[in-house]
Please model this.
Amino acid sequence: MTDARDSDAIAHNVQSVLHSIRRAADRVGRRSDTIRLIAVTKSVSVSGIRHAIAAGVRLFGENRLQEAIPKIASFGPEAGLSWHFIGRLQRRKVRSVVGAFAMIHSVDSLELAAEVNRRAEEAGACQEILLEVNIGGESSKAGFSLPAVVDALPVLDSMSHLSVKGLMAVPPPTLEAESARPYFRRLSELARSLSHANLRRIRMDELSMGMSNDYEVAVEEGATFVRVGSAIFGPRAL
Ligand SMILES: *Cc1c(COP(=O)(O)O)cnc(C)c1O
Model:
């Protein structure tokens, strides 16, 4: 499936995405080292992941647990990779996610947060998470509503095995990257306003937003993690 040409193409794509991130950061006077690229490897083979590692990528995002677990297992801890869970998470699968992933971006309810906290406690760990916000108010989409995330914070703050780092969102799909800008801005503003809340443990430093077609706009609006799949690995076969 993957051959030398894929390796060249992936290396080229990684460099071009990193270059675009730097340019977007420059446009708004941000330091580009505050933005981390997560290569999204759903449906990408282990050899495709190896090509990305060879190109310097260390952060990877997966959204299907069954697919992710064997991939993660094929790279030892010495590889120095950091895996991020970015997909819909069912409560009964939380136990397998805690510990295997450095960060869960898709915590979309208090019930799920409580389960992550419980499993992290069992594992003697503290799990880093982001709160997924349904920034477009779409009925088809998971995530905290804006008012719900405000209400959830004091409860989350008391969950001692969670480390809330910030917010994540997937805006409504659009053809034009520019159309996503108001949603990214709203998420940024929400994080800024929440960071003034008087909470002990919760941080709002991280903003996970922007995918292949709109990550440059997301960087302009404050993203600290961009989640890029097809711009690196090519279109996904379904
Ligand atoms: C698939 C996926 C991505 C990457 O999408 P691309 O358009 O291929 O860059 C980012 N975030 C989430 C949550 C995803 O499921």
User: Anything to note?
Assistant: The two ends are 15 Å apart (CA to CA). The pocket of pyridoxal-5'-phosphate is lined by residues 40, 42, 63, 86-87, 170, 211-212, 227-231 (CB under 6 Å).
